[in-house]
Amino acid sequence: MLRRDEHGAVIIITAISMLMILSAVALAVDIGDLVWRKRQIQGVVDLASLDAVRALSDQRDASQDRCAQAVTLAQQSASRNNFDYSASGFSLSVQLGTVDPTTKAWSMLTDCVPNAVGSAAANAVKVIASRPVLFSWLPGSDNVLGTGIATTNAKADIAMGTWLAKFSTSNSTPLDKLLFCMGTGGGTCSSGTGVTALGYGGLVGATINYGDLFTQLNLGTTTQLANTQITYKSMLLAAASVMTAKGDVASASALNTLALSANSTPTFKFGDFLDLSSGYGSVAAVNTNLLDLIGATGEVANPSNFIEVDNLGIAVPGVSTVNMKLSVIEAPKHAYGPVGTSVHTAQVRAEFDLNLIQTVKLCLVLACVNVPLTLKLYVESAAGDGTLTNIFCGNPNTSSTATVHVTTSAVTIYVGEVTPNSAFTNTQSPPTVKPNTLADTSVSVAGLGLVHVTIGASGSLPVSGFDGSVTMGPGNYTRNNSVGSAGVTTDSLANNLNITTSLGGLSISGGSILSILTPVLQAADTYLLNIVSTLPLGIQFAGADLWNSQIDCGGRKLVG
């Protein structure tokens, strides 16, 4: 029982408790509103920075200063999201700067106050906004601040060692024979796939979307692209289905013909030649040249397989037929990605056996014989690496450019041969290049019977690599320092040849032989090595052959 003097205490305690509860509720309401306003303003600056950074990329208007355009885009974005930056106590400011692609660190270049000149080096925009928040229950107010940083995320699709702009349907015969051999897993080949020059002409002008191709092959994740083995034949059939769906009947027909000549032996993974670091969606969005895709997958499906093509079908002055031996040591790598993306060329070992039209006439006593000659050239195409160092986004996109820094190793072209054939595929050590046996035969000479004739030749030509930066627009090709172009020739091979000739043990002068070899060696760069490096197989000799198929400047991302 309460004493008389304790009556009313409960009422007082209850009142005090209610006051505390109401104060807590009021504090919770005001704090909740403050947090909500903070989240709201953060959403505004994030969207505004993503819109404003387009002033540095795909929406760049050359008639405006970068700062002025970025401010306008940020203000328009804020207004669309019901943020009245002109109201009392509200503010919206814009800065231009750079964001390091690795550390994501922000560095301001320009504070976009009125009449500020925006830096052309900027690749990011920071938007800062603030607004007052009046408390509903508690006395006073507070300010909330939001900061959003967005950077351009431009990407380019680049490749090295391809020269589709220079590919001619007149070179379709050697390509057709090489693709036949690759489609059957290598070995010695003399046939072709049966695709006509017209068919290759259609393929060189056609594009295919990787996403459509992946869907046709039931590849839906990056992991599947990296790990799933695909037969070269099934890739060709899938590509034919995609092109049929697009209404490109001619390309589909050529692809089906290629598939018909292939077997199920050669297999590959898309991760073997595509850079998948940007994720499935980014890779699937890329459109690639169809013939380049065929060549790249053909090579990557033949790792270290020995390939020998009889009568390659290349016309070299003074040569009746050209045979080619080939081994792919490393396949080319294509990539689609931002600055920092890297690609490399194919690395191959190749020997070209040139059967000469003119024979050498050797006379002994009263007898003369014509001896046929086979000139052999060996070259290992050096691996070249290219790194995307800058993307300039223009408006329209056709004025955009991508800059790639390229380094290629020096190579040596030999008059010589590699034996046995297994040496071509030995990736543990480079093959030994032996002197070229131009002729090794026995001829019948009246009064002497069979006379053994051997003619040998050896020589080498070092070719410097390339180290420099190349800038290209979307869809452009360029060639630097490759053999057969830019003054890099095989002419000087004829100047340091060592020729040995033996007739039944009697050595004779090689002067007449040199006169036969010299014009062929002088033509080899243009008519042989140059043509081989124009085929869409990722092969290059010493120089940098680059392809920038597309530049996507629409990419943007938040970094802060």
Report on this model:
The chain has helices at residues 9-52, 66-80, 172-183, 197-204, 210-216, 222-227, 232-246, 249-261, 280-284, 290-300, 511-534, and strands at residues 91-99, 106-111, 124-134, 141-152, 155-160, 187-189, 207-209, 230-231, 267-268, 287-289, 306-309, 319-330, 335-337, 342-344, 347-356, 360-364, 367-371, 374-380, 384-392, 401-408, 411-417, 434-445, 449-463, 467-472, 476-480, 498-503, 506-507, 544-552, 556-558. By secondary structure, the chain is of the alpha+beta class. It has two domains: 11-152, no CATH class; 156-558, no CATH class. The strands form seven sheets. Strands 6, 11, 12, 15, 18, 21, 22, 23, 26 and 27 form a ten-stranded mixed sheet that branches. Strands 2-1-3-4-29 form a five-stranded antiparallel sheet, with helices on one face. A hairpin with a 2-residue loop joins β16 (360-364) and β17 (367-371). It starts with 8 loop residues before the first helix and ends with a strand.
